[in-house]
């Protein structure tokens, strides 16, 4: 798998963010997610290609010895993609070991087969089978935990909670002018002096 200059830039930035995730911006997170999607697609495409080559190899092997040249070339190609040679391949190479290319491939396949047997005995892997389509690595979900990722909270501030509307109070009665300006008391009329004399 080869990376372009822009992909390498994003990859370096992603490694830096892994050490200091708090410095991630929204643009950095989106670039990392796009790169992760491209890598996942490349892995799936590689698995599809390997499955196609493995099926093609089986057809060439079934048509041996007439297809020896094509079989040896194809076998070398699929070994480079991670193919694990089986007993059918070892038997075919033994039958073709008079060919120098077949003899070299037989030694290589024997070494790979021995490594696989030792690994199975140690319990580190399962028996080799036809490769299944690759799944997206579970560790990819860690990207979602970066600030600004899809799993992060919305960075925009939440609107303040609405306060309940105040309950209207009963309006006070408007005072009348008579209450504001009470009428002035009239002074009592002066007494007549003649009345005092008559009373005396």
Overview of the structural elements:
The chain has one domain. 54% of the residues lie in helices and 0% in strands. The chain has seven helices and no strands. Helix 1 packs across helix 2, helix 2 runs antiparallel to helix 3 and helix 4 packs antiparallel against helix 5. The protein starts with a helix and ends with a helix. The relative contact order is 0.10.
Please summarize what this structure is.
The chain is an all-alpha fold.
List the helices and strands and how they pair.
Blueprint: H1 5-19, H2 26-62, H3 68-80, H4 87-95, H5 100-121, H6 177-180, H7 193-199
Which features would summarize this protein structure in a list?
single chain, 200 residues, mainly alpha, 7 helices, 0% strand
Low-confidence stretches: 129-154
Radius of gyration: 47 Å
Secondary-structure-based class equals mainly alpha
> Roughly what percent helix?
40-55%
Provide the succession of SSEs.
HHHHHHH
Shape: rod-shaped
Count of individual domains: 1
How many distinct beta strands? Answer: 0
Total helices: the number is 7
Distance between the termini: 139 Å
Beta-strand content estimate: under 5%
């Amino acid at each position: 798998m080869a990376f372009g200059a822009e992909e390498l830039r994003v990859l370096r930035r992603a490694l830096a963010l892994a050490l200091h995730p708090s410095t991630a911006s929204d643009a950095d997170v989106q670039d990392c997610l796009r790169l992760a999607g491209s890598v996942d697609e490349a892995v799936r495409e590689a698995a599809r290609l390997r499955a196609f080559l493995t099926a093609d190899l089986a057809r060439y092997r079934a048509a041996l010895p007439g297809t020896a040249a094509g079989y040896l070339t194809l076998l070398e190609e699929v070994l480079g993609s991670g193919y694990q040679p089986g007993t059918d391949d070892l038997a075919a190479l033994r039958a073709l070991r008079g060919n120098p290319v077949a003899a070299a491939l037989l030694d290589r396949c024997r070494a790979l087969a021995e490594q696989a047997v030792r690994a199975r005995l140690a319990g580190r892997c399962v028996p080799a089978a036809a490769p299944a389509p690759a799944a997206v690595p579970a560790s990819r979900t860690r990207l979602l935990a970066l600030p600004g990722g899809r799993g992060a909270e919305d960075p925009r501030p939440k609107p303040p909670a609405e306060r309940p509307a105040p309950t209207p109070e009963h309006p006070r009665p408007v005072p009348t002018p008579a209450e504001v300006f009470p009428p002035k008391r009239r002074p009592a009329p002066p007494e007549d002096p003649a009345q005092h004399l008559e009373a005396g």
